[in-house]
Design goal:
Layout lengths: L1 E3 L1 H11 L11 H19 L5 E10 L6 E4 L12 E9 L2 E4 L1 E2 L2 H7 L6 E2 L4 E5 L5 E6 L1 E2 L4 E10 L9 E3 L3 H13 L9 H23 L14 E2 L4 E2 L1
Length: about 240
């Protein structure tokens, strides 16, 4: 994974075009135009099934006594719906404490008294619904502290210039060169040798992502452990 922001990508793309040198920053109108073009590239690539599943860490306030929360556009946690939650923690006095994952089966069968409350949760269960996912906590948090969630989600664009995103291998390079190529005509670079080199690199980087996507497409399979049960005490199946 490569950690980037939209501002990083736009600045690096302008450096590729020779518009900036080390230490320079784009002007406000240039950075806004770059953000528009970057999101346009991501939107266009999505039509080719080139979807970015990036990792993002976000924090959301809890409501004391509330057992479950919807997550997604317009939900209790208003953000892009995660395709998977990687990890979760809460923070007390600058110390982070993990919240452990429970499967649907474990939450349903092994948590008898689901309404027990505690200032902080120990476990969470995530159900991937549409258009909103659902998070359940146990014990039910009685405090109004924030929960921190590292999730993987399909990125349809950068909502802000400085949101930190972990991109899969190869994506930062592909976006950087594609954005430079997109911006080149506006700065009179389309007929220059630099733009030809950028185009070749952009095509190569995008081609590598396409090849990786094809290689990683899942095959249908039947799990061998359909009857396996899960214990929250051992964190293992049995």
């Amino acid at each position: 994974m490569t950690t980037v922001t939209a501002r990083n990508l736009i600045t690096d793309s302008m450096k590729l075009l020779g518009l900036l040198v080390k230490g320079d920053s784009p002007a406000d109108d240039e950075i806004e135009d770059g953000l528009y073009r970057l999101n346009d590239i991501i939107s266009t690539w999505s039509l080719e099934s080139l979807l970015i599943n990036a990792r993002v860490t976000e924090s959301f306030p809890l409501t004391g006594g509330q057992l479950q929360y919807t997550i997604g556009p317009g939900g209790n946690f208003d953000t892009t719906r995660p395709t998977a939650i990687i990890s979760m923690f809460y923070r007390v006095a600058n110390l982070d404490y993990p919240v452990y994952k429970l499967t649907d089966e474990a939450y349903a069968l092994q948590i008898g008294m689901k309404n027990i409350q505690n200032p902080f949760p120990e476990y969470y269960n995530y159900t991937l619904g549409w258009p909103l996912g659902t998070l359940k906590f146990w014990p039910v948090p009685s405090s109004t502290n924030s929960i921190y969630i590292l999730s993987e989600k399909t990125i349809s664009g950068f909502t802000t210039l400085d949101t930190v995103v972990d991109l899969p291998p190869g994506w930062a390079r592909a976006l950087r060169y594609a954005l430079a190529l997109e911006m080149a005509p506006e700065y009179g670079k389309d007929a220059m040798q630099t733009a030809q080199v950028i185009k070749a690199t952009a095509d190569e980087a995008k081609g590598m992502i396409k090849a990786e996507n094809l290689r990683n497409r899942p095959l249908d399979y039947i799990p061998s452990d359909l009857n396996q049960r899960y214990s929250i005490l051992t964190d293992r199946g049995y």
